[in-house]
Amino acid sequence: MFRQASRLLARTTTTAPWRRSRAFSTEVPAQTVEDSSFIQSWKKVIPNIEPPKTPSAFMTPRPATPSSIPSKITVNFVLPYASELSTKEVDMVIVPATTGQMGVLPGHVPTIAELKPGILSVHEGNDVTKYFVSSGFAFVHANSVADIIAVEAVPVDRIDPALVQKGLAEFTQKLGSATTDLEKAEAQIGIDVHSALNSAITG
Amino acid sequence: MAMAAFRREGRRLAPLISPRPITAVRSSPLPPTHEDEGPIGVRYISTQVVRNRMKSVKNIQKITKAMKMVAASKLRAIQSRAENSRGLWQPFTALLGDNPSIDVKKSVIVTISSDKGLCGGINSTSVKISKALHKLNSGPEKENKYVVLGEKAKAQLVRDSKKDIELIITELQKNPLSYSQVSVVADDILKNVEFDALRIVFNKFHSVVSFLPTVSTILSPEVVEREAEAGGKLGDLDSYEIEGGETKSEILQNLAEFQFSCVMFNAVLENACSEQGARMSAMDSSSRNAGDMLDRLTLTYNRTRQASITTELIEIISGASALEG
């Protein structure tokens, strides 16, 4: 009776719309923008094997840069195991760049930002969704599309304060007893992440 | 010892040397003894052989069916993960573009394959594509190296391109694939291999019966910077403002490493997914073939048995009529 339950649950939690497409062919390349010079040189040198595909053949097409600034910014927020947001139109995102919190509105200048552990908040009208991200990168493109890639992210309300305190104490102790540079760096990273988590819960 | 073997052999050969017609009605009044008729007589041995063969085919079919079931359940688990990871590489391609035709001195071809066989042609496809890429990018003052993931591509590439193999990593799929595991592998590759461009060859999962050989290209930070200055495809990169990090090259370094681990993660998952799909269809067709063979053998077996029954009946009837007449 509950055989399919896990699958159904998994389906409801993922937000990517193209995941729910046909069961067997899981992804249809929307348009094939191939590197023609690659294919030509391939065919010249290796005529008997079909040229392999390249990632651009599977890309979901990106919009062109509009002449006027759109009212919303399109956000892709991806994790290794899920696409949290995919081409979602929101009002603003605030990303935790290493230089400080960075608010991204439509028409932001193209930017590449490295992320530090901190809060990523997605503003959509009056709704604010807050995630804690561990690290990663954020790209803001000229066409008001923001890509955020994080290694790990959780909604802030799912963090357990007790465990955070425990982890913080543990890593502080580790930093005290660390002898090599590698151990010190690892402990420092642990402290950074946990204090960021701590301030995310309290702040 | 040798004599005994020879005697055994001789006994086996004896009926071939002096064959007796089997279909003809036996004129000898003596009933055939087991010694000279049983195991050698064509009438019985043929059904025996067919029966043995049927048994073995049935066993093979059982095994392939079980393997298909296992592959199907593994596929279902890994398919959702592969699909979820597809968002991961797209931002990088949007930012840095897709440069399969880039002309660099040191190319490193990362061939991703499976550790286990019986999965159709996915491993030989990725090896073939890797060799073709090697050929495509070879030239004077150019260096091509292989990094091999998986037992099967290793076996194929070691044979004729042993000197070009830089690094071999196997048994990646012993534990369920995770991002941290793949990033450790990626780190290993980055530490041990010098490159201007990494070309990752893998099979992208398309459906259970089809997979698409794919090449993802990852450029080293120096090449990205050079290309961005030279304009062309990466010319847009100069218009991006860079936040964080002391220098641009530092950020690009981090970016390239992160890109590599993300692309690798997706590639490994896609390849594992294709592997299970290919195994499932290969096992499906082989159990179907075994079924066909079993049908044919059953037909032969029944026909032979029927023929022997008919012959016996004829013998009895003709014997009886000879006594009457």
Automatic annotation (TrEMBL), chain A:
Subcellular location, record wording: Mitochondrion inner membrane
Q: Cellular component per GO?
A: mitochondrial inner membrane; proton-transporting ATP synthase complex
Q: Which SUPFAM superfamilies match?
A: Epsilon subunit of F1F0-ATP synthase N-terminal domain (SSF51344)
Protein's name according to its UniProt entry: ATP synthase subunit delta', mitochondrial
* Domain ATP synthase F1 complex delta/epsilon subunit N-terminal, chain residue ranges per copy: 74-145
Q: Which family does it belong to?
A: Belongs to the ATPase epsilon chain family.
Q: Sorted alphabetically, which NCBIfam families does this protein's record hold?
A: ATP_synt_epsi
Originating species: Corchorus olitorius
Would the keyword Mitochondrion be found if you checked this record's keyword annotation? yes
Tell me, how does this one assemble? Answer: F-type ATPases have 2 components, CF(1) - the catalytic core - and CF(0) - the membrane proton channel. CF(1) has five subunits: alpha(3), beta(3), gamma(1), delta(1), epsilon(1). CF(0) has three main subunits: a, b and c.
Gene3D superfamilies linked to this entry? ATP synthase delta/epsilon subunit, C-terminal domain (1.20.5.440), F0F1 ATP synthase delta/epsilon subunit, N-terminal (2.60.15.10)
Report the function annotation for this chain.
Mitochondrial membrane ATP synthase (F(1)F(0) ATP synthase or Complex V) produces ATP from ADP in the presence of a proton gradient across the membrane which is generated by electron transport complexes of the respiratory chain. F-type ATPases consist of two structural domains, F(1) - containing the extramembraneous catalytic core, and F(0) - containing the membrane proton channel, linked together by a central stalk and a peripheral stalk. During catalysis, ATP turnover in the catalytic domain of F(1) is coupled via a rotary mechanism of the central stalk subunits to proton translocation.
Keywords from UniProt, A to Z, are:
ATP synthesis, CF(1), Hydrogen ion transport, Ion transport, Membrane, Mitochondrion, Mitochondrion inner membrane, Transit peptide, Transport
Single annotated GO MF? proton-transporting ATP synthase activity, rotational mechanism
UniProtKB/TrEMBL annotation, chain B:
Q: Which Gene3D superfamilies match?
A: 3.40.1380.10, ATP synthase, gamma subunit, helix hairpin domain (1.10.287.80)
Top-rank lineage group of the source organism? Eukaryota
Q: Name one Pfam family in it.
A: ATP-synt
Q: Which InterPro entries does this chain map to?
A: ATP_synth_F1_ATPase_gsu, ATP_synth_F1_gsu, ATP_synth_F1_gsu_CS
From the UniProt record, which GO molecular function terms apply?
proton-transporting ATP synthase activity, rotational mechanism
Subcellular localization: Mitochondrion inner membrane
Query: What is the membrane topology listed in the Swiss-Prot or TrEMBL record?
Result: Peripheral membrane protein
Q: Which GO terms describe its cellular component?
A: mitochondrial inner membrane; proton-transporting ATP synthase complex
Residues in the signal sequence:
none
List UniProt keywords, sorted A-Z.
ATP synthesis, CF(1), Hydrogen ion transport, Ion transport, Membrane, Mitochondrion, Mitochondrion inner membrane, Transit peptide, Transport
* Cross-referenced NCBIfam families: ATPsyn_F1gamma (TIGR01146)
Spell out the family assignment given in the record's similarity comment: Belongs to the ATPase gamma chain family.
Query: Whom does it interact with, and what assembly results?
Result: F-type ATPases have 2 components, CF(1) - the catalytic core - and CF(0) - the membrane proton channel. CF(1) has five subunits: alpha(3), beta(3), gamma(1), delta(1), epsilon(1). CF(0) has three main subunits: a, b and c.
Name the job this protein performs: Mitochondrial membrane ATP synthase (F(1)F(0) ATP synthase or Complex V) produces ATP from ADP in the presence of a proton gradient across the membrane which is generated by electron transport complexes of the respiratory chain. F-type ATPases consist of two structural domains, F(1) - containing the extramembraneous catalytic core, and F(0) - containing the membrane proton channel, linked together by a central stalk and a peripheral stalk. During catalysis, ATP synthesis in the catalytic domain of F(1) is coupled via a rotary mechanism of the central stalk subunits to proton translocation.
Protein name per its UniProtKB record = ATP synthase subunit gamma, mitochondrial
Q: Which organism is it from?
A: Corchorus olitorius
